[in-house]
Amino acid sequence: MGVAMLHAGFISFSSCIPSFSSGGLSRRCTRFSFTKLHRPLAMSSLSNDPIREWILSEGKANEITRISPVGGGCINLASRYDTDAGSFFVKTNRSIEPSMFEGEALGLNAMYETRTVRVPKPFKVGPLPTGGSYIIMEFIEFGASRSNRSVLGRKLAEMHKTGKSENGFGFHVDNTIGSTPQINTWTSDWVEFYAEHRLGYQLKLARQQYGDSTIYERGLRLAKNIRPLFEGVAIEPCLLHGDLWSGNITSDRNGEPVILDPACYYGHCEAEFGMSWCAGFGGSFYNAYFEVMPKQPGFEKRRELYLLYHYLNHYNLFGSGYRSSAMSIIDDYLLMLKA
């Protein structure tokens, strides 16, 4: 059976208010390559079915017994491959080059190597012979109940504490947040990184896509004046999942938390809570997290600054329903900072 006949499921996308219609932002990705800092996930040669070929060779399977769709989202097609050597999870996308999946694989691998919170181990990324690309990873059987939020908080803090970078803030490749390009150029200063590569980039997209000069000008004014919010804070580059909302959090059959679909980079640990408006963390999560990673001075004053990046991204992806939330945060900070 050819690849084109195998994939009929979907994988999740980072919107927690699905009633908004999709915006017209096109998918743009820079061609990425794996760095020597990570064990490479080899690119496959083109064949009639590179997915089947890998599973029956490097995947150590003798037989694929079943292929079934996995439902749940809107960007990629997803399937479960059952074999005599276990199950594999496969995502494909007919409209992107392997760069997007390469970024995801590097992020998953970086989190996997911390041996803290559970993530699916990535195995293979490659191009499809008829266009598009695929990623093969570990299949994790999900449990019926939600993960314990206090356990998630502790394990996430352990990941932040373990996953460090000697290169500063950023990541080894650019990747995507949803389908929006996420720029991860290494930067020694966190405030500069967040102002330019997070807020600044999203504000430019809003101006390009909607001609929104108001949010662009006010947002840039804020981005240039956020440094006082970080006074007295020692910021280390921590490995972040980057897109942690309820749709990317689940549990395995033993009830242990599992996190999926990352947009990884090394950043200020508090930036991990930028999607908290639809993550359902709660007091038990934060209490457990701060037992491992103590709360930093001014945490409450910075919380909405980190929400802003994701509100801007949702504005760019899904339209004006998110503009007012982003604008409100910008105006409140401009007033607070007297900028």
TrEMBL record:
Instruction: Tell me the enzyme class.
Output: transferase
Q: Name one GO molecular function term.
A: kinase activity
Catalysed reactions, semicolon-separated: N(6)-(D-erythrulosyl)-L-lysyl-[protein] + ATP = N(6)-(3-O-phospho-D-erythrulosyl)-L-lysyl-[protein] + ADP + H(+); N(6)-D-ribulosyl-L-lysyl-[protein] + ATP = N(6)-(3-O-phospho-D-ribulosyl)-L-lysyl-[protein] + ADP + H(+)
Enzyme Commission no: 2.7.1.172
**Location(s), subcellular:** Plastid, Chloroplast
Gene Ontology CC entries for this record: chloroplast
Concerning InterPro entries, the annotation shows: Fructo-/Ketosamine-3-kinase (IPR016477), Kinase-like_dom_sf (IPR011009)
What's in the keyword line of the UniProt record? ATP-binding, Chloroplast, Kinase, Nucleotide-binding, Plastid, Transferase
Stated role: Initiates a process leading to the deglycation of proteins. Phosphorylates low-molecular-mass and protein-bound erythrulosamines and ribulosamines, but not fructosamines or psicosamines, on the third carbon of the sugar moiety. Protein-bound erythrulosamine 3-phosphates and ribulosamine 3-phosphates are unstable and decompose under physiological conditions.
Q: What is this protein called?
A: Protein-ribulosamine 3-kinase, chloroplastic
